[in-house]
Amino acid sequence: MIRRALIPTLIVLLALPAAAEQGLSARAEGGWRLAFEAGQSSLPAATRDAIAGLAPGLAALPQGRITVEAQASSPADDASLARRLSLARAGAVRDVLVAAGLPATRIDIRALGRRDPPADIAEILPPGVKRADAGPAPSSTR
Fold it and tell me: What is the per-residue pLDDT across 21-72, written as a single tens digit (0 to 9) for each?
C-alpha cells in the first residue's frame, strides 16, 4: 500500500529536472514556482510544456487538492488591477494543468494580488505543501 502511494510522488519528483529547464523552479518548501513578465499573464510555450509535464504525476496522487497561487508586482496604487492580473495568471496555469489531464475539480486557485515584497510569480503547490508565507495549503480529500 505504501509503495502504491509513493509511485505518483516519484513521478512528480522525476519531472523536476525537465521542469527547471523550461521556466519552473523547485521551491524549498515543495512545489514549483514560475515567473511572469511584469504586467503579463501569458505563458511562454516552454513553460506551458513544463507545467503540462507535471500534470500526470499530480493527477496520479491518490488524494488532495493542488493549489495554484499567483501574485502581481504592480500597479502599487491599484489593488484591484493587481488582483485581476494575479487571477489571470493562476487561471492560465490551471488551464494548462487541466488540458494536460489534471481534473479541474482538484485544483484551487488563489489570486493574491500585490504582496510584500512584490513579485510576478505563480506557484503550484501539491497536496500538503506549505505556502511560503503561511500555514499549510488546502488538502481536502475530495
Answer: 458 899 988 999 999 999 999 999 999 999 999 999 999 998 899 999 999 9
Q: Extract long-range pairs of 108-111: CB within 8 Å, 24+ residues apart.
A: 108/65, 108/66, 108/67, 108/68, 108/138, 109/67, 109/68, 109/69, 109/70, 110/67, 110/68, 110/69, 110/70, 111/70, 111/83, 111/84, 111/86, 111/87
Number of residues that this document lists for the chain: 142
What is 2-125's CATH topology?
Answer: 60s Ribosomal Protein L30; Chain: A; (3.30.1330)
87's grid cell: 487571477
Secondary structure class of 16 (helix, strand, coil)? helix
